Amino acid sequence: MSGSNVAGGAKKVVGMILAAVVGFPLLILFVAKLFTSGSGVDLSLSTMTKEAISARLQPVGAVKVVEGGAPGSRSGKAVYESVCMSCHDAGLAGAPKFKDVQGWAARIAQGFETLSKHAIEGLNGMPPRGGAADLTDDEVKRAVAYMANAAGASFTEPAVAAAAAGGAVDPATKGKEIYDTVCMACHAAGISGAPKLGDKAAWSERLKKGEDNVIATAIKGINAMPPKGGYQGSDEEFKAAVLYMLNSAK
Question: Which end of the chain is less congested by CB atoms within 10 angstroms, N or C?
């Protein structure tokens, strides 16, 4: 056998090996495309959003858990940030975005009870209670009111019963909680004439008419301050926030 024939034979063998190495993956891809043709399935992960990939990786039957506060006592803001934000912040699965006036307008027009019913029972892509089975009906309603109000509604969040909070409202705990989430926005920096927390001179001027008068005025609202500073809970709870601020100036 001549050297040229040996070389030619070796080239054929190498060519067959390369064809097998390259051709097999192409064959697999062709078969995959054949079976998914027309199904709308895209095999490329690059076309999937991070949210979609994350959702597919979630365990079947996974349940969201709301943190912060005893069951039944969590505010609309707390529920939104723990549960609802995951979809309503970016508008996933058709959920109206937080503070999107246009997106919420038609829903707000349905009324608070209808919106709450849909949120509790689930609707379209939203599971019952947003996937947080431990939420009470009132907690879901508070979240609905919180989101709708941010888009222009004037719904009232269901009040938290004193028993759910462990008895009488304590200004040192509940008051601080409300101050940190609501009152701080103005009273920390003294915006729109609001007396700063701990400013004895500013608060003493208001206390000349008596503590009860300060509390009543704060609940009713005055000048640039809306009723209860925009707080959606009960008057008794908001009173704790006022007392918390008054005590800080004593």
Answer: N
CATH label of the domain that carries residue 103: 1.10.760.10
In the chain, what is the straight-line distance between the N-terminal and C-terminal CA atoms, in Å? 110
Contacts of 216 (CB under 8 A, 6+ apart): none
Print the domain residue range for 80. 76-150
The helix (run of H) or strand (run of E) holding residue 48 is: none
What percentage of the chain reaches a pLDDT higher than 70?
Answer: 67
Per the structure, the count of domains in the chain is 2
Q: CB-side exposure of 210: number of CA atoms within 13 Å?
A: 3
Q: What is the DSSP string of 136-166?
A: -HHHHHHHHHHHHHHTT----PPPPPTTTTT
Alpha-carbon span 115 to 122, nearest angstrom:
10
Q: Which helix (H) or strand (E) holds 98?
A: none
Backbone angles phi, psi at 151, to 5 degrees: -110, 15
Q: What is the pLDDT of residues 48-92, one digit of tens each?
A: 344 433 433 344 334 444 555 666 788 899 899 988 998 998 888
**145 and 76 in contact (C-beta within 8 Å)?**
yes
Is residue 14 assigned to a domain? no
Arithmetic mean of pLDDT over the chain: 75
